[in-house]
Specification:
Blueprint (H helix, E strand, L loop, with lengths): L10 E4 L2 E4 L29 H10 L7 E6 L6 H11 L6 E6 L3 H15 L13 H14 L3 E6 L5 H8 L5 E6 L13 E2 L5 H13 L10 H7 L4 H14 L3 H10 L1 H4 L13 H13 L4 H9 L7 E2 L9 H13 L4 E2 L3 E3 L2 H7 L17 H18 L10 H17 L7 H17 L2 H19 L4 H16 L3 H19 L4 H16 L3 H19 L4 H16 L3 H18 L5 H16 L3 H18 L5 H16 L3 H18 L5 H16 L10
Parallel strand pairs: 3-6, 3-7, 4-5, 5-6
Antiparallel strand pairs: 1-2, 8-10, 9-10
């Protein structure tokens, strides 16, 4: 190379023309004696990930040809941080460690050009002698192809094709790739490493490290709850931690801000932090890429945002488009790790859901997020409600439909939790009302009452106080109160509802008669047996006159009246009425209808009250077996049969079997219904009495 005062950078001056000096051959340029790892991310707060670091150790220890490993995962899950940590740990094992932000082909070219400039600084000295970036990048490719022992991190690859030529053309070193994409790597990477969120303990440790660095007395109150709300996503935890350090707030205070104003907090970076590294901005870039192929992927994600984060049936989304269109949209979202997908179900990170259903208050023209417009989010909430209504079974009474209900209930519950009551539509009212009826039948009374109350409030607002649906929901709420023993609320609500039914629909309308029957039942539960029996008798007579002797409603009235007679000790009228009701139900309903099983249970109870324990026990045993087969071992009616059979065993002197069966019944009631459910309390009381009076009470009863 020439020397002297006429040399400017690496160019030779000939007259008025600058002629660049020839570049050294890439094969002949040795790596510098030592270069600090060119890594942009600090790892001082790195926590956990021991298993993933070990996976990288194993994957990048392969020999023979180019050693390439890709780590994929949701944006913000910590892929780049993991890559940086592994690179730092293994810097001494490489002659050179280089980081390239590879989110585009231009980014790859720029990163390679910078590598060449580091190896041969003369390439980048001022114009007009500087070598063009494309030429420097080509030179760097040749250098990597002709040397060994280096590590290149290709961070945030969006299109595998952008790095394919580089990776395949440089077999002498290691490539560590990070990407949100889980698909498209078959020709480059033998197997991907998937990165998930931190564990609860790791997320709390990360937040603690950020908050206590230089501030050992930092307020950590609510750290665990905040990390859980953030779904243990590293970027979200770091974003929150930086904001807390800046504002000197506690995690509890941040959580309150997050719930009060999520749109601001999801996009809020601390001063001095990278404003593009917020969870909202991170996922906005992903959705920008997906939107290039059409709007359906974004539409699907916004709908998914209203349901539970796990076990979403793919079939729920079918009405949104053709099978191929839905499959493509889900595949695209899965490819970018915005969802997890298998053949039957979908899962979405809860924080992805939270951001997707939170409108950006800024208009799009003022850099508002185009994927979080208020109108799109409102439309997605309506679609989420409609899709659940389409999928729910037509009845909550058919045991064959209960598995489908149980799949949907978590998503209906999530929708109710996420959507403000003021946004409820008639579709929402219908969905919550029908779900409340199912939950009531399953004994999940807390949620049943909550859904009933909300459905009633919405119906009154949308349809008016006298609408038939409003009256039905008021009746259902009163019945729920009666079921849990809250008679102070049940009886007045039944009385008001009956008066409204009579005024609106007439005294002989089936809804009015049903309301009268329910009020009689509430009187009976409250111990007002005289009024209950009189009202049951009047209702039965009216139903026989209006609907006929064999109508299911008439049979219900007959059974209720028989039970009222039994309660006051009038077994002479109770038993024949129970027997006639069972015979009619078997003839009219047939098979294993739950009402037939109820009649058998009631008749067995009447036999027991009359002292006919032989017939009572045989009928109880048969009814319990049928309920276990038809309704399932955990159905509330099955639990009642178990308790009733135990009571009959006790009355017959078989204390061992009685105590054993009551123990099982109590354990099942506590597990299924909860410790404070009225049915659970009744079984517990029966078991306590049985243990006190049993000769073997010291051992808890014999089998």
């Amino acid at each position: 190379m020439a020397a002297g005062g006429d040399i400017i950078d690496s160019s030779t001056h000939v007259g008025d023309v600058y002629q660049a000096a020839p570049l050294p051959r890439a094969e002949e340029v040795e790596p510098p004696p030592w270069v600090p790892p060119a890594l942009p991310l600090r790892t001082a707060t790195f926590v956990g990930r021991d298993g993933k670091l070990a996976e990288l150790d194993e994957a990048l220890a392969r020999s023979g040809g180019a050693v390439v490993q890709a780590v994929h995962g949701l944006g913000g899950v910590g892929k780049s941080t993991l890559a940086a940590q592994w690179a730092y740990q293994h810097a001494d094992a490489h002659v050179l460690t280089w980081w390239i932000t590879a989110d585009s082909a231009a980014g790859v070219t720029a990163g390679l050009a910078d590598l060449a400039g580091m190896l041969v600084p003369e390439m980048t000295r001022g114009a007009p002698a500087a070598v063009a970036p494309e030429e420097r990048a080509a030179w760097a490719r040749r250098w990597l192809a002709s040397h060994t022992g280096w590590l290149v991190v290709l961070d945030n690859v969006v299109h595998p094709a952008d790095v394919a030529e580089l990776v395949s053309g440089a077999p002498g070193g290691r490539f560590l790739i990070t990407s949100r994409l889980r698909e498209g790597w078959n020709d480059l990477v033998p197997a991907l490493i998937e990165l998930d969120v931190l564990s609860a303990t790791e997320a709390e440790e990360l937040l603690t490290r950020i908050l206590t660095a230089g501030r050992p007395a930092a307020d950590l109150a609510g750290a665990s709850e905040l990390c859980a709300e953030l779904g243990h996503l590293p970027l979200a935890v770091k974003q929150a931690g930086a904001y807390l350090r800046q504002t000197h707030l506690s995690p509890t205070s941040y959580l309150e801000l997050l719930r009060a104003d999520p749109a601001v907090m999801y996009d809020q970076a601390a001063r001095g932090a990278d404003g593009e590294r917020t969870i909202a901005r991170t996922w906005r870039l992903t959705l920008d890429h997906l939107a290039a192929t059409g709007p359906l992927a974004g539409d699907v994600l916004r709908v998914l945002a209203w349901w539970a984060p796990e076990d979403v049936p793919r079939a729920l989304l079918a009405p949104l488009g053709g099978p191929a269109e839905i499959a493509t949209a889900l595949g695209d979202l899965s490819a970018y790790n915005m969802i997890a997908l298998d053949a039957e179900t979908i899962a979405v990170h809860r924080l992805v859901q939270a951001v997707a259903r939170t409108p950006d208050p800024r208009p799009v023209q003022d850099d508002g997020d185009p994927h979080r417009c208020l109108g799109d989010i409102d439309r997605a909430r309506a679609q989420a409600t409609d899709l659940l209504n389409r999928a729910r079974p037509a009845t909550e009474e058919d045991p064959a439909q209960w598995p489908a209900w149980r799949v949907l209930v978590p998503h209906i519950t999530a929708l109710a939790d996420h959507a403000a009551p003021g946004t409820d539509t008639i579709d929402t009212v219908l969905l919550l009302g029908e779900t409340a009826a199912f939950l009531h039948g399953q004994g999940a009374m807390d949620r049943a009452i909550t859904f009933n109350q909300r459905a009633l409030t919405g119906c009154e607002r949308l349809l008016g106080a006298d609408h038939r649906d409003t009256l039905m929901l008021r009746n259902n709420l009163a019945y729920a109160y009666r079921t849990v023993g809250d008679l102070e609320r049940a009886v007045p609500l039944f009385e008001a509802t009956l008066a409204d039914y009579g005024r609106v629909s007439g005294d002989d309308h089936p809804d009015t008669l049903a309301s009268r029957n329910n009020l009689a039942s509430a009187y009976w539960a409250a111990g007002d047996l005289g009024r209950a029996i009189r009202l049951f008798e009047v209702t039965l007579a009216d139903r026989e006159r209006v609907s006929g002797a064999d109508h299911p409603d008439t049979l219900t009235s007959r059974s209720n009246l028989a039970y009222a007679y039994q309660t006051v000790g009038d077994l002479g009228r109770a038993i024949p009425l129970f027997e006639a009701t069972l015979a009619r139900r078997e003839r009219v309903l047939g098979g294993d209808h739950p009402d037939i099983l109820t009649s058998r249970n009631n008749l067995a109870s009447a036999y027991e009250s009359a002292g006919d324990l032989g017939r009572a026990i045989r009928l109880y045993e048969a009814t319990l077996a049928d309920r276990e087969r038809v309704l399932g071992a955990d159905h509330p009616d099955t639990l009642t049969s178990r308790n009733n059979l135990a009571s009959a065993y006790w009355a017959a002197g078989d204390q061992g079997r009685a105590v054993s069966l009551l123990q099982r019944a109590l354990a099942d009631c506590e597990r299924v219904l909860g410790a404070d459910h009225p049915r659970t309390r009744a079984v517990r009381a029966n078991l306590e009495v049985a243990r006190q009076e049993s000769p073997s009470s010291g051992s808890g009863g014999s089998a």
